[in-house]
Amino acid sequence: MTWLGACMLALALFPATASAAGYTQTKYPIVLVHGLFGFDNIGPVDYWYGIPSALRADGAKVYVAQVSAANSSEVRGEQLLTQVKQILAATGAAKVNLIGHSHGGPTIRYVASVRPDLVASATSVGGVNKGSSVADVLLGVAPPGSLSNTVIVSVTNGLATVINFLSGGSGLNQNSLAAAQSLSTAGSLKFNAAHPAGVPTTACGEGAYTARGVYYFSWSGAKSYTNVFDIMDPALALTSLAFGGAKNDGLVASCSTHLGRVIRDDYAMNHMDEVNQTVGLVNLFETNPVTLYRQHANRLRGLGL
Ligand code: CA
To answer: How far, in Å, CA of 99 to CA of 245, rounded?
Structure first.
């Protein structure tokens, strides 16, 4: 083998990536908190498709929380707080890094608000921090005249498909109304008044980067249809009509996802791509969602969190 051939073989065996040992090794454990429904059928671990293993590969300690699939932000938040205390007891860590997707955003914010001493950082991915027009449509409280009946029917049909998929066909459960109220614009504003940390005070700006010792971050996608092979995409294209042209990921407006430091709010990803669903069917022309979580772990590591 020539010297050049040996070099090329070495390059093939050890591809140059950002995955140096310790790249994702945060000081505090990372806790992933799922959103609405949270895949009753396949469980909360698979909800974060391929993400825990990718974070663990270079040193992060990762826990996947399981809270009520559909309930209010406060009920889910109390459930998460109990699990955070268990994780701290099991690991001996002083704090956790919370990452929440969708309704997981308000859920982690609740814990950071009531027990900031236990939380190093709170990161919201596609978080419903200022409500979702889709929840407003579901509750029949979309501003009168803001959407045509045709659009409302399309949104409702799209949402039914999404809910059926996420809940394994079991449909809305008994606490779905509490969830929808939490995720509505009015419900979110009420929640924010009680738990304001990190929430932007302007319509679409950034929030405080730190509050009461907790670092706040967010990112989201802004494209509803990203992969022709993903059966969720046509449904998300329908629900995205609820936003009347405002930038959104199919279920949440980009501006509503803002929390603390906004890393980016316009990745070419939809709401499910943000957690690498369905089973890794994401936009091939955008940064892989799993990479964003690894980069964020490295960001937290850099801050000593
Ligand atoms: Ca997808």
So the answer is: 28
Whether residue 103 is contained in a domain is answered as yes
Strand-pair category, 119-125 with 214-221: parallel
Question: What's the 62 CA to ligand 1 centre distance in angstroms?
Answer: 23
159 CA → ligand 1 middle, Å: 15
Residue 138, φ and ψ in degrees, nearest 5: -60, -40
Residue whose tokens read 């022309």: 285
Q: Is residue 21 part of a domain?
A: no
> In angstroms, rounded to a whole number, what is the distance separating the alpha carbons of residues 120 and 305?
6
Check if 266 is active-site. no
Residue 286, in any domain of the structure: yes
Annotation says 249 is catalytic: yes
Tell me how far apart the alpha carbons of residues 203 and 287 are, in angstroms, rounded to a whole number: 27
Domain of residue 77, CATH code: 3.40.50.1820
Q: How far is the CA of 215 from the centre of ligand 1 (A)?
A: 29
Residue 8 included in any domain: no
Tokens of 96: 């956790």
Is residue 57 within 8 A of residue 183, CB to CB? The reply is no
Over residues 98-145, the pLDDT tens digits come to: 999 999 999 999 999 999 999 999 999 999 999 999 999 988 888 777
User: Is 58 tagged catalytic?
Assistant: no
User: Looking at 103, 195, 258, 271, which residue is catalytic?
Assistant: 271
For 88, residues 6+ apart whose C-beta sits below 8 A from its C-beta are 94, 95, 96, 118
Does the pTM exceed 0.85?
Answer: yes
